[in-house]
Write a structure and sequence with these properties.
The complex is a heterodimer. Chain A is mostly helical. In chain A, about 75% of the residues lie in helices and about 0% in strands. The longest helix of chain A has about 35 residues. In chain B, strand 1 and strand 2 form a beta hairpin. In chain B, about 65% of the residues lie in helices and about 0% in strands. The chains are: A mainly alpha, B mainly alpha. Chains A and B meet through helix 1, helix 2, helix 3 and helix 6 of A and helix 1, helix 6, helix 7 and helix 8 of B.
Chain lengths: ~230, ~575
């Protein structure tokens, strides 16, 4: 056994040594050439052709994926914990889910669909439709948030306050964080709508804002659906 | 084409120079000004943390001599010292300070891609710092829960600041995370999108790579802290039981029931371990550039260095529970996390070897930045190797509550990154201000800091092996196993720490004095290749590059190229401008 270990160590040592010699003798100044990439040769806008806002949105989506993912894993860990969870006695008592949540989900789906329609209307260069769909998308989102607040109230009236137990507390926190993200989206939406109303901007200039709003809306719909399934099933 | 037209127009607008003092230096959207704002704020709050550490050392070296420092004060100091150093100083300084300054300059961009967001990021950071400081003045004082803020004790009346101090701390952290996310989106997008022509990802200086990867880690890891801060605030203020188990306080049962303190530990360390690398990776990157520039030699194994940064970044997400070996978790988990922890040593060791090999046969100039860079290699190896001990469960369990751990993490993620911060400030100060920092003061600063570090932390390893428990306010003579020599050693550590703390004031003096009286630096005093040294003006003006953006033709490490007229070739020198190089084919 020991001899094999020694042999292995020796071989590794020789390989590392050979590799090191090879690396040490490379001439870095010869390998790194002088060719310059001439694609996107537009002067001042940088090498990559993707608009910065789009990159930033996707990075931001990664960040909030981490955020919601951690909330959801905390949910599961807390659910399996509690007093003597191992012995089947947990302090986790599911809360009754207000039925208005179904209505809210429908609102959010409609909202997302309207945003998608607005995005398509931009491509068709149909200004009136863009305005209409955009407005509808925001309105449905506001209805969703109002519905969530009503759900909070119903839950509280049913006796599941914030301190009633972990399931109730998580319900408020998860829906609250999701709602806040949608509110943030609505701020950007409002800015887009106002820009379209007050200034004589070309539709093409609105394209990126509307596209990014739509992506964000779809993402938050996805998060809500995952959370909704989670809340219903536990 | 329409995009290009719009982008150009926006750019022309953005380049409109700010005129008044207020828009130029206070409400500035220029990445360089924001970087300096971040740096000054971080150094200011860092001085608070330094003062706290001095107070702690006074208590530990000369217990019962300072009536000012009561036990609860000691715990407040320990908590705030840790939190400030890790988050408000190091994270903010590396990413907000150096990230902001270096990314656009090194990538050949005019500014960050979202200058307004960048400005907001700084002001929100400042708000976070102010909320943190406000914690000292609320009823009950700042929190004394330890920087890990473990529940349940963090919000039980036994801990100092359990009512309002902890709330201030959590609010400040949440605010900081918002600020960081705004800044981080900027850094990542700028690196991905705004590099100048020819600056491919694999031609970026390692400083940018380190900062970039650290930002990615921060963006993905800080949400864990955010989640725990929100849930803990709810526990503290509204009586939910996310983390709080059923407890009695002063004989009275509290409202809490069934919460999981262990859940907090998992969330905290899911953030906490990547945080180590959020601080370390920028240091790795910057030190690579310092070593290469001042040794006049290309960085050894550039591509490997990049891959090592990426590997360390990914691995840092799967080692968090090595901070929790003593939490009573399943031994199989311990085995898994010990394995991943030791695997992280591989890319880290590759980096250390490559730094040393970069120096091999280099034309080493022992300038002040170089001294700090070499000092970093020493402290990082000494701190890192003891990490291998602590990564193993059976070694960690007896050592985890002793001074061995204190010495380990201070060397590896306290002193080492701080040495790089100093090196980087000496290195880039000429670009930021147009003047050199004073050399003699710099050398005094380095040697006292470096030697002092060893005189402080090596004895702590020894004390840890003796079994001296950490987090104690005082070790009474009644604790039998602590020999009298340990008390003497504690006095020694305290006296050294006072010297080292005092010499930092010399550095501050140097920063201020050199700003007015320093030797004029010229555009490229270190004869470096990277783009920030090739700006038309020093300090660079708004927009950085004058009329035209630079074009990059080579990697960042063309030092001592045979046949070249100078011993460095800047990244933006086109091949036809070079003196003919003799190729040996």
């Amino acid at each position: 056994m020991n001899i094999w270990v020694a042999f292995g160590a020796l071989t590794t040592g020789v390989i590392v040594w050979l590799w090191l010699i090879r690396r040490l003798s490379t001439r870095s100044w010869e390998r790194h050439g002088s060719s310059v990439h001439l694609r996107h040769a537009r002067g001042d806008v940088g090498e990559v052709g993707v608009p910065p806002a789009r990159i930033a949105l996707w990075v931001f989506l990664a960040v909030i994926t981490s955020l919601f993912g951690l909330f959801i894993s905390a949910y599961f860990i807390r659910m399996g914990h509690g007093h003597g969870a191992g012995h089947g006695i947990s302090d986790w008592h599911p809360v009754s889910k207000p039925s208005i949540l179904w209505f809210n989900s429908a609102m959010l789906v409609l909202s997302s669909a309207a945003m998608q329609a607005a995005r398509r209307a931009v491509r068709l260069n149909d200004r009136a439709r863009v305005r209409g769909y955009l407005f509808a998308g925001g309105t449905f989102a506001v209805l969703f948030i109002t519905g969530q607040l009503v759900a909070w109230q119903q839950l509280r009236d049913a006796g599941y306050g914030l301190t009633s137990g972990p399931a109730g507390a998580f319900f408020y926190v998860l829906t609250g964080v999701h709602g806040l993200h949608l509110l943030g989206g609505l701020v950007v939406w409002l800015k887009t709508v106002l820009r379209m109303r007050t200034r004589a901007v070309e539709l093409i200039e609105m394209r990126l804002s509307i596209e990014l709003c739509t992506v964000y809306w779809h993402y938050l719909l996805l998060v809500w659906l995952v959370m909704f399934v989670l809340l219903l099933s536990t | 084409m329409a995009y290009a037209a719009i982008a150009d127009r926006d750019h022309a607008h953005a380049l409109h120079d700010p005129q008044s003092f207020l828009t130029k230096y206070i409400w500035s959207q220029d990445h360089k000004v924001i970087a300096i704002q971040y740096t000054i704020t971080a150094i200011a709050i860092g001085l608070v943390a330094l003062t706290l550490s001095v107070l702690m050392r006074l208590q530990l070296g000369f217990p019962h001599s300072f009536s000012l420092i009561a036990p609860q004060n000691y715990y407040q100091f320990i908590t705030l010292h840790g939190m400030i150093m890790v988050i408000y100083l190091l994270t903010a300084l590396f990413l907000g300070g150096f990230g902001n300054y270096l990314i656009p300059l090194m990538c050949g961009a005019r500014d960050m891609v979202f200058p307004y967001l960048n400005m907001v990021s700084y002001w929100v950071y400042l708000l976070a710092v102010l909320i943190l400081v406000a914690g000292f003045f609320v009823p009950g004082g700042a929190t004394g829960a330890g920087w890990t803020l473990y529940p349940p004790q963090a919000i039980l009346s036994g801990s100092p600041g359990a009512r309002w101090g902890i709330v201030c701390m959590l609010a400040s952290l949440a605010t900081f995370i918002v600020a960081f996310t705004m800044g981080g989106l900027n850094y990542v997008t700028t690196v991905l999108q705004a590099r100048c022509r020819g600056m491919t990802m694999m031609r970026m200086p390692l400083s940018v790579w380190g900062i970039f990867m650290a930002t990615v880690l921060g963006l993905l890891a800080f949400p864990a802290l955010f989640v725990s801060a929100i849930m803990m605030t709810l526990d503290a203020l509204l009586g939910t039981s996310f983390f709080m188990p059923a407890v009695s306080s002063m004989g009275q049962p509290m409202v809490y029931n069934g919460g999981s303190p262990l859940l907090f530990q998992h969330l905290f360390w899911f953030f906490g371990h990547p945080e180590v690398y959020i601080v370390a990776l920028p240091a790795f990157g910057i030190v690579s550039d310092l070593l290469s520039t001042h040794a006049r030699r290309h960085i050894f194994g550039y591509r490997m260095m990049v891959w090592a940064i990426l590997a360390i970044g990914c691995l840092s997400f799967v080692v968090w529970a090595h901070h929790m070996y003593v939490s009573g978790m399943n031994p199989y988990f311990g085995f898994f996390f010990a394995t991943t922890t030791l695997i992280i040593a591989v890319p880290t060791a590759i980096k250390v070897y490559n730094w040393v090999l970069t120096l091999w046969r280099g034309d080493i100039h022992l300038t002040v930045p170089m001294l700090f860079a070499i000092g970093f290699i020493f402290t990082f190896i000494n701190g890192g190797l003891t990490g291998l001990f602590l990564g193993n469960v059976p070694v960690d369990v007896p050592l985890s509550a002793t001074y061995f751990v204190v010495a380990h993490f201070h060397l590896v993620m306290g002193v080492s990154p701080i040495l790089v911060v100093f090196g980087a400030l000496y290195h880039w100060y000429p670009k930021m201000t147009g003047r050199m920092l004073d050399d003699t003061l710099g050398r005094i600063h380095f040697w006292i800091t470096f030697v002092g570090t060893y005189m402080i932390y090596m004895p702590m390893y020894y004390l840890g092996i003796l079994g001296l428990p950490r987090r104690y306010y005082a070790w009474d003579e009644s604790i039998q196993f602590i020999p009298p020599s340990a008390h003497t050693m504690n006095k020694w550590i305290t006296i050294t720490a006072l010297f080292v703390a005092a010499v930092q004031l010399l550095f501050l003096f140097n920063l201020v004095w050199s700003f007015f009286k320093g030797k004029p630096a010229g555009g490229n005093p270190w004869r470096a290749t990277t783009l920030e040294w090739q700006t038309p003006d020093t300090p660079p003006r708004h927009g950085n590059w004058g009329e035209r953006l630079p074009v990059v033709y080579r990697w960042a490490y063309d030092y001592s190229v045979p046949g070249a007229k100078e011993d460095f070739i800047p990244q933006n020198v086109p091949p036809d401008k070079l003196a003919p190089i003799v190729h040996t084919h």
